[in-house]
Amino acid sequence: MAPDNTDWQLEHEYYTIADPHDLVIRVVEHEDITRTEGNGTITESKACKLHIFKVKRDTLSNSGPYFRKLLTNGNFKEASQDTIDMHEDSVKGLALWFKLLHDKADESTYKAGIDDVWFMLATANKYGFDPGAEVATKWFGKWYEFQTRRQDHSFDYMEHQQLLFPCFTFDHIQGFRAATKYLVYRASGHITEKRPDGFSHDHLHMDPIVLQQLNAAKGRLKTILHRSLYAPINGLLKEARCRCRADVLYAYEQALANTGAWPLEAAFLGHSVDRVLKMLDGFPGPRALTSQTCGASACSFNFAPVVGKAREECRQYFDGLCLDCMNTSKPKFGDANEDYWQHSKQGVPWDAGCRIRHQQPSWYFSFMGRRYKMVEWVDRSHSYSNRGYGQRGAGGGGGGAGQAAAPRSVASGEEEVHGLQELNLQ
Ligand SMILES: [Zn+2]
Ligand SMILES: [Zn+2]
User: Fold this and answer.
1) Which of 289, 296, 352, 381 could share a disulfide with 251, CB 3.0–4.6 Å?
2) Please, which residues have CB within 8 angstroms of residue 411's CB and are 6 or more apart in sequence?
3) Element spanning 35, H or E
4) How many CA atoms lie within 13 A of 50 on its CB side?
5) Per-residue pLDDT tens for 33-86?
6) Which are the contacts of 4, defined by CB distance < 8 A and separation ≥ 6?
7) CA–CA dist 415, 178 (Å, integer)
8) Does the N-terminal peptide bond of residue 263 adopt cis geometry, omega within 30 degrees of 0?
């Protein structure tokens, strides 16, 4: 539709994307105006600004199916025109795409906010631009680098929630790893993603499986922290036969309770993993009781190193999700996710063939395949491990998580595809 006469009264903005150019695209930007009428309100889309882009016809027709059809298919009148008119709700996404498609994305484009990047993805979805194309992934890499290097700014919690989908879609493996790790350690409740306010493209979001896996990883951190902190208590209850065991037990639990992090179950209700670990940094604290012991091994352990080791193990455990492992584990026909399972073989690194270095937990939680396949793998690992075959089991081998496999409880049922925390890996 051509702009009518009133459009020429609008504010104009010119963009020389290509010089020389052989095509002009006039975009009428619209905004929603809400007014009261009678007892209700009426929202109307009104033209608010005219954007004029000077571009290259060839570049746009190679950008994706929308412009290819429009500019090369003789059935469209636009195929023979040198000026094309369009109507848009958000022009920022289109302007950014035009620039990067013409290789004209200068530093000013790196200043775009995360919200603008989301609108770019909506534009890509509408016009068939490919965020996985080299020109797009390179641009996003530079945008990300610029944003993380800005001295006055580091991404906060909400921005990390917003970064998940753009990092995923632009295939930015480092950014995705960093955002997933940040959220798992910093979330004080259930991990969710966040989209910009007013973003109406409801079909653009992370696959819920990814968020399930992040929440499972968070649950796993609590489990491994508890296992290490509880080990001395278990020793006192099951092995100690001396009279001082009660005093030692009391002193240890009291020192833990003084940090605010014990019992863990209560501490994790309102605090993130990171916050709980910081509480434990204060262990044993000045008010900790010291008790003389009989010298038996179960009651003569040093509190601080036990807690220090538990804290560090938990801090190091999870290094974020790996886009490459996610990609190779997605359900496909035949044995196509064989690449993913290759990593679980003896002698093969957990990050074999991946663009980033990582250990077993990143591999494990990046699993996007069918849940029963992972259940089978954990089953097999446990049975090998119990029979002492030396095959690398669930959690073994690549360092990081490197413990032997333990009894597990597996909730079965194929309708529940994920929820891998149930697998009780060691
Ligand atoms: Zn004792
Ligand atoms: Zn990987």
Assistant:
1) 289
2) 419, 422
3) strand 23-37
4) 17
5) 888 888 898 888 888 899 999 999 999 999 989 999 988 887 888 878 899 999
6) none
7) 31
8) yes
The amino acid that residue 29 corresponds to is E
Judged by its nearest atom, the ligand closest to the C-alpha of residue 239 is 1
Q: Using only C-alpha atoms, what is the Rg of the chain?
A: 28
What is the full DSSP assignment across 190-210? -------TT---TT-S--HHH
Number of H helices, E strands in the chain: 17, 4
Alpha carbons 273 and 275: distance in angstroms, whole number = 5
Q: Which residues contact 186 (CB under 8 A, 6 or more apart)?
A: 157, 160, 272, 273, 274
| CA 320 / ligand 2 centre spacing (Å) | 10
Counted residue by residue, the chain has a size of 426
pLDDT of residue 395: 44
What CA–CA distance (Å, rounded) separates 108 from 120? 15
Query: Which ligand has the minimum distance to the alpha carbon of residue 365?
Result: 2
Token look-up 């490459």 returns 324
Q: How far apart are CA 323 and CA 321, in angstroms?
A: 6
Distance from C-alpha of 258 to C-alpha of 252, rounded to nearest angstrom: 10
Taking Cα atoms as reference points, which of 243, 244, 255, 235 lies closest to residue 291? 244
Distance 288 CA to ligand 1 centre (A): 18
CA–CA distance, 318 with 267 (Å, rounded to integer) = 20
- The rounded mean pLDDT for the chain is 85
How far apart are alpha carbons 424 and 323 in whole angstroms?
24
Residue type, 361: P
Tokens of 312: 């560090």
Q: How many whole angstroms from 342 Cα to the centroid of ligand 2?
A: 11
Determine the pLDDT at residue 406. 30
> How far is the centre of ligand 1, averaged over its atoms, from the C-alpha of 194 (Å)?
53
Q: Which of 424, 327, 338, 325 is nearest to 373 (CA)?
A: 338
* Six token digits for residue 158: 């909400």
Asked if residues 381 and 343 have their Cβ atoms less than 8 Å apart, the reply is no
Our CA angle for 5, 6, 8, nearest 5°, is 75
* Closest among 352, 373, 372 to 363, alpha carbons compared: 352
